[in-house]
Specification:
Low-confidence stretches of chain A: none
Distance between the termini of chain A: 28 Å
Shape of chain A: elongated
Helix content of chain A: over 70%
Largest sheet of chain A: none
Strand content of chain A: under 5%
Oligomer: homotetramer
Order of helices and strands of chain A: HHH
Chain lengths: 93, 93, 93, 93
């Protein structure tokens, strides 16, 4: 069981759409579409992935991190550091 | 012919890798992988798409926009506005 | 008492530096510096603010959110939703 | 003369506001404001700087880069590479 278990179907549906968008970008490049139109499609795929990441992170905080915080101690500390590092990677990417 | 024509093979290769990464994220969700590990993979896919976008933009500036600028006039102005809007979308996404 | 209390001096020092960087950008614009050099300075200021935001968020999770999670109930839920919304704003800005 | 000369007053006004926002963040930290409220203010300052950067870049493309493109040759090539590198820094920051 993970934080995202309840959202699994929605996440998978969103990821399949993102995968289709990336494939769409490749097709546009292959068929010599106009650069700016390709960039618009790249932005759509990037935003879809960002939404997936934020959902995963929210679920992770609300379950794994919250449960570790309830128990306290070094495990809680480690979970919080790990989550903060993941947030930093996300903000900087 | 587009700005990215000379980089087409490299772009398509990179996009196929990004598509594989997104599919990898879906597989990890499906197989109940640990949230933080999934997030790391999402970041990798996002970065790959970002690199594609920056390459497309660089090629677009160096060809379409540069050629329009050489000719000057309202077409040059329109191409520059369009490129700036695409850059803003990219920075804000 | 807030999550960031222990980091207050470091945060204030960093914010004073960021303020100086923004003032530096204004001075460069005022003195007609080269656009690209100004952009480099804007990026430095933006990165400094990002570091402040990530520190505040890490402290917030490790204290306010962790304490709320220990107590559990609707307050914990509200704190987690609030933190997730702040993370989303940060990732999208 | 630079690309941003015509926008200088608007840029300086926006930068003074951003500087005030950063100072506001420092005051909030100093007065122990609630973390999430500080983060909202940090986001506002970051967005203001982003808008400045996009304006500078648009002006730079429409003037310095467009003029270099009209003349062509290695100088045009260098200006385009420099602009692309600045865009990449902005997108990744």
């Amino acid at each position: 069981m993970h934080g995202y278990t309840a959202d699994k179907d929605a996440l998978l549906k969103r990821l399949r759409r993102a995968e289709g968008q990336v494939r769409g970008v490749a097709r546009m490049v292959d068929e010599d579409a106009y650069c700016i139109d390709i960039l618009t499609q790249v932005s759509a795929a990037t935003k879809a992935l960002e939404t997936v990441a934020l959902q995963l992170l929210e679920d992770h905080l609300a379950h794994c991190v919250a449960e570790a915080a309830e128990r306290g101690g070094p495990v809680a500390q480690a979970k919080l550091s790990e989550a903060s590092a993941a947030i930093a990677r996300l903000v900087r990417s």
